[in-house]
Amino acid sequence: MKRLVPGFFLCWVLASTAALAQDEEGSYGRGQGWSLLAGDTVGANQNVLSAQIGWPGLSVGVLHGSTSKLDLGGKFTFNWGQEGLVEVVEPGIKLQAWVRLMLARMQEASLALVFQPGPIFYFHEGGTQVGLALPVSLVAGIPVGSAIMLNLGVDVPFHVYFGSGGGPVFPLLVGGGLEYFIDRNLEVNFNVRMGPSLFPDAGRRGRSDAYFTLEALMGVGWRF
């Protein structure tokens, strides 16, 4: 009996260490241990290539896990709908930095802050409209088994246009999405956000001061 106690204790220590190691990597009870759109990061020293298409456009991006809680990267977007406004079909491009900071992680959920600043350009018949995007998002991730990660988010994709006819725009979008992990390093995703975009200066120009805004995108993420 005395010999069984040290052996049992040793087995318990080894099992606990393995569980803690898994949890530190983000894989213990949390899908495949990483996320592109939800609250988890892509993982320290990991890289992810992403692509999405839908409304309002097409985007490609890359993320690098600087730490277990911080992702840094960039994104290029070609839009055919101006910043998601369903009434405005205009081509444009965006060049953005991509920062994801995990604020908290529990067994049942995780929470992250996302910031994607960068210049925007939209091409109208009268010329090119230049602006600056400063979008901020708060997103929660909820793992469902080992293959699905759900997300719920509140986005404020604030942007401002320069020059004549420009001004700030304040969208407020809410919605959700999911990621399905085909294997440990490959996932497909769908994300939707919707809500109003407010134009504080529109009343002075005789226009409506709010437009319905929609983002509905599907894509893929590959960790390499």
Distance between the termini: 49 Å
* Biggest beta sheet attributes: 12 strands, antiparallel
The best one-word shape is elongated
CATH architecture of the largest domain: Beta Barrel
Sequence of secondary-structure elements: HEEEEEEEEEEEE
Question: Assembly type of the shown chains?
Answer: single chain
What share of residues is helical?
A: under 10%
The amount of beta strand, in percent, is over 45%
Keywords: Signal
Protein name: Outer membrane protein beta-barrel domain-containing protein
Signal peptide: 1-21
Task: Give the structure's gist in a few sentences.
The protein is mainly beta. It has one helix spanning 4-25, and strands at residues 47-55, 57-65, 70-79, 92-105, 110-115, 118-124, 127-144, 148-161, 167-171, 173-183, 186-198, 210-223.
